Structures are given as structure tokens and as C-alpha cells.
């Protein structure tokens, strides 16, 4: 999936090839430290959730303990873009009463000639839904670091301002501030050959 490719690039510094192209089954776990300002490092726990309907009962349970999410669609696959609102509504329904911050990510921006979703309409959707928008490519590493850093900084500001607070029985923010970030991917929308992200 596109989220999986982003996570491999972000956490392992590489673009996953055919040997690492198996689709996400349920939830995959990743982790990495992010320096959001000099001397200020935050550990991210990253959950890559499968987009397929048959895994929904598994992935829904991860929303409640998350404070941030990348909603990832493929700019060369219009159907994946059309599913963004569905993912957003589902996540918001299962995360209540806690707040979750989302960043809309248009992936595969290196494939300009195959684009099916314009930047303008993606920016309009993100604005309508109260999200920021960024375009990425795991293949050439465009905006991969930036997407996670933007989301982490936004979460961190909400924590500092008290808009996201630690509550009993919630694992979204742990001691020392460790945000969980959940990813909804479009992998079920398009037939998979290999991870050409």
C-alpha cells in the first residue's frame, strides 16, 4: 500500500522493492524518533492499517488510541481519492471522545503523467475537512520526512496548548509524549503488482 511504502521510506530510509511488496494484513507496526526542533525529539508509534474491508474489524480498534493520522491516497488512482471521506468519517467515529489530527497525503507525485487527481481538488478536500495537504513520493523520497514532521508538530502544539490531554485509560499520549499515528491506505482499491509508489 502507499502508506506502507511511506513508512518503509520514513523508518528504514529505503524504497521497498518487490521482495517487500506484500500488502498490509490487518495492522503493521513501525517506530521512529522525530526531532521537531533542536533538542526536542518525539518517539512515534506508527500503525499501518489495511484498507481492505475484511480487515476493518481489526483496524478500527487502533483508532481510539491514536492522536494523529495520515490519510493516504494515490494521485494516479481516482478511486482511492474518492475513499478519503469514508476513511475520515470512520476514524472520527471510532476515536471519539478523543481528538485526532489528520494530514491528507497525495502519494506517487513522481508519476506526473499518470495523475488522475489534481492538486487543486485535493487541497479543496483537505480544506473542507479541516486538514493540511501534502504530496509525497516514497520512490524519490519527496516530502516523506516532511509529512510526518508536519503531523507531529501539529499534535505537539495541541498537547502544549492542552487541547489534547492525557486521560485515564487512554494510550494516545504516554509519559514523555509518545503519539500514536494511524494510517488508512487505499491498497484494496487498486490491483497490486509490486510496490511502485
Automatic annotation (TrEMBL):
The keyword GTP-binding applies. GO terms for biological process: autophagy; Rab protein signal transduction. GO terms for cellular component: autolysosome membrane; cytoplasmic vesicle membrane; plasma membrane. Its main location: membrane. InterPro entries: P-loop_NTPase, Rab39, Rab_GTPases_membrane_traffic, Small_GTP-bd, Small_GTPase. Belongs to the small GTPase superfamily. Rab family. It holds the Pfam family Ras. Keywords: Autophagy, Cell membrane, Cytoplasmic vesicle, GTP-binding, Lipoprotein, Membrane, Methylation, Nucleotide-binding, Prenylation. It comes from the Eukaryota. It is a lipid-anchor. It comes from Serinus canaria. This is RAB39A, member RAS onco family. PROSITE patterns: RAB, RAS, RHO. GO terms for molecular function: GTP binding; GTPase activity. It is found in: Autolysosome membrane; Cell membrane; Cytoplasmic vesicle membrane. The gene is RAB39A.
Amino acid at each position: 500500500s502507499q502508506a506502507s511504502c511511506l513508512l518503509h521510506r520514513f523508518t528504514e530510509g529505503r524504497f521497498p522493492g518487490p521482495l517487500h511488496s506484500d500488502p498490509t494484513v490487518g495492522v503493521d507496526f513501525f517506530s521512529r524518533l522525530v526531532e521537531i526542533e533542536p533538542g526536542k525529539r518525539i518517539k512515534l508509534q506508527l500503525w499501518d492499517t489495511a484498507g481492505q474491508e475484511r480487515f476493518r474489524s481489526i483496524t478500527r480498534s487502533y483508532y481510539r488510541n491514536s492522536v494523529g493520522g495520515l490519510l493516504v491516497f494515490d494521485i494516479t488512482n481516482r478511486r482511492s481519492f474518492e475513499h478519503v471521506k469514508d476513511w475520515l468519517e470512520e476514524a472520527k467515529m471510532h476515536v471519539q471522545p478523543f481528538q485526532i489530527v489528520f494530514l491528507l497525503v497525495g502519494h506517487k507525485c513522481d508519476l506526473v503523467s499518470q495523475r488522475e487527481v489534481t492538486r487543486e481538488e485535493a487541497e479543496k478536500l483537505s480544506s473542507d475537512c479541516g486538514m493540511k495537504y501534502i504530496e509525497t513520493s516514497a520512490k524519490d523520497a519527496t516530502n516523506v520526512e516532511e509529512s510526518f514532521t508536519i503531523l507531529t508538530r501539529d499534535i505537539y502544539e495541541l498537547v502544549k496548548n492542552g487541547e489534547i490531554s492525557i486521560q485515564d485509560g487512554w494510550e494516545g499520549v504516554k509519559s514523555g509524549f509518545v503519539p500514536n499515528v494511524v494510517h488508512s491506505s487505499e491498497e484494496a482499491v487498486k490491483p497490486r503488482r509490486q510496490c511502485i509508489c
